[in-house]
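Please think about what follows:
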Amino acid sequence: MQRNNTQLQPVLKIKQKLGFLKPMSLAKKLNLSKREDRKCTIADILLGHWQLISKGSFSFDNWAMQISTITGRTISGQGLWKRVARPEIVTYIRALLHRSFAQKYGSFMDSALFCHFDNVYVQDATHFSLPSCLSDVFPGSYSKRGDTACAKIQAIFNFKKGRFSDFALDSFRDNDQKDAYRFLGTLMEGDLIIRDLGYFVLDVFDRIDKGQAYFLSRFKYNILVHDAVTGEGLKLDACLKDKRELDIEVHLGREKRVKCRFVAIPLSDGIANERRRKAKRNRNKKSNHSKEYLNLLGYSIYITNVPKEVWTAPNIVQAYKARWYIEILFKSWKGNLRIKNDIPQRYINRQRAEFFFYSVLLMVNLLVIPIFNKAQQIIEKAGIAISIIKLSEIVRENMQMIVNEKINILEQIKYYAMYESRKDRINAMETIYFNIS
């Protein structure tokens, strides 16, 4: 196959991207490589691990064979196990991951909706069930059937730059509210962060506002709302009565009064009634939903400190849809990249589990996201969006050829990874990319 250097650009640079992270100097610093590696480097171990994703089963022998396809040299599974079993390996791979956050991929999203902000971050979490032997390290949900194990990945995606800015590996029982504080030191003046209800903490909103950054979140129904002028408590269902939408300045909270906009947009009767039916089915036996709460379920309600001259109420609804993108990324990880396939059910411990997760997250940041961004930049000129889910499947199926730089991946993406053209509904990426409602 004749290679086209322009088209293969995101593939040919994968080893250069690993080189940018200076893996060998870091390995020597952590005493992981005291002399020149004769059979394989740390980078080869990572690339071999990435190739395992398409195999659907894990063993150190299989991993060693993948490395041999890269290096042309043989390495035993036992020899590989000794290298990966060293206690410094998790510190090393985590450090490489954090170095990858400095990668520059160029502009990803030039939407007029976000032109007012320097950076637009979207934060969310996803879960991965693990063998029960890891329940002490990654405790899962409480179960009457015995101990369960579940890991949680906290991810923060920079929507304008098209790259992840932060990852954290926690357990299922580590709540999102605790993690809401972690990114405050990174958020700068003029930045925007979009989160769902799990991260709803009034103190965090207050700190973001005082730092002259911006937030956008769903509203939490049990929070007290006060008129911003009079300070009087508001009856929300009375405020919303006979109004198509509501956009007012309020103060939230009983003691800590956080000033923000309160924006409510009515839902269709069908969606509103379904939300009410679901609330009645799922409620705790000891609770009884109030009439006001059931009325509020007929609205999409948001809070933000973005001023009205920057966003109208419909703009807020549109901007919140950016969260769809990170949800789509999570779906592609689980369903198409199948990143849990290489976590064995036996002979697994905390160190190996953490290595597997951090290695795959590094692959997402250095390989999958750059390929997607490059392909989308080429294709979006025609007003077409690429499915990250379909792209992830193509990457998984061709991982060995991608790592060994033997495939024109963009040609396959342009043909097989685009959304189908449909007149009856708009897909999520069209909504995000082209501001189509």
Q: What stands out?
A: Residues 9-100+367-434 form one domain. The chain is about 40% helix and 15% strand.
